[in-house]
Automatic annotation (TrEMBL):
Residues 4-121 form the VOC domain. It comes from the Bacteria. PROSITE patterns: VOC. The lineage of its organism: Bacteria, Pseudomonadati, Myxococcota, Polyangia, Polyangiales. This is VOC family protein. Gene3D superfamilies: 2,3-Dihydroxybiphenyl 1,2-Dioxygenase, domain 1.
């Protein structure tokens, strides 16, 4: 799935309000998913996993002050893509790291200032 969007997640100031909103408007249910930096929930539509949701303390964009949706793109090699991106003017927000039971991820800010995650699934 190299080059395609593979995951979307909401980072929010009010997790419980966000969960209630998406449950009431889209019918999503939520299951807690253990992470080292706090709590994280996987959103499901029926039996299908559709997104993730977490608090600002573990957010993808450290300087963010408002809630936001964030996308990750699947890549064949996270480290190689980060190196290419930096060579072409990107900055690293979060260097490549392994997330247990998820895969390898990194966050870069492209030369226009947009942040995006790159991920190779486990």
């Amino acid at each position: 799935m190299h080059g395609t969007f593979v995951w979307n997640e909401l980072t929010t100031k009010d997790v419980e309000a966000a969960k209630a909103f998406y449950a009431e408007t889209l019918g999503w249910t939520f299951e807690e998913f253990a992470i080292p930096d706090g709590k994280y929930w996987v959103a499901k539509s029926g039996d299908q996993i559709v997104a993730g949701l977490g608090g600002m303390e573990a957010g993808a964009i450290p300087e963010a002050t408002e809630s936001y949706w964030f996308s990750l793109i699947g890549v064949d090699d996270v480290d190689a893509c980060v190196a290419k991106a930096v060579a072409r003017g990107a900055t690293v927000v979060r260097p490549p790291m392994d997330v247990p039971n998820v895969g390898r991820v990194a966050i870069v800010r492209d030369p226009t200032g947009a942040a995006v995650g790159w991920m190779k699934g486990a």
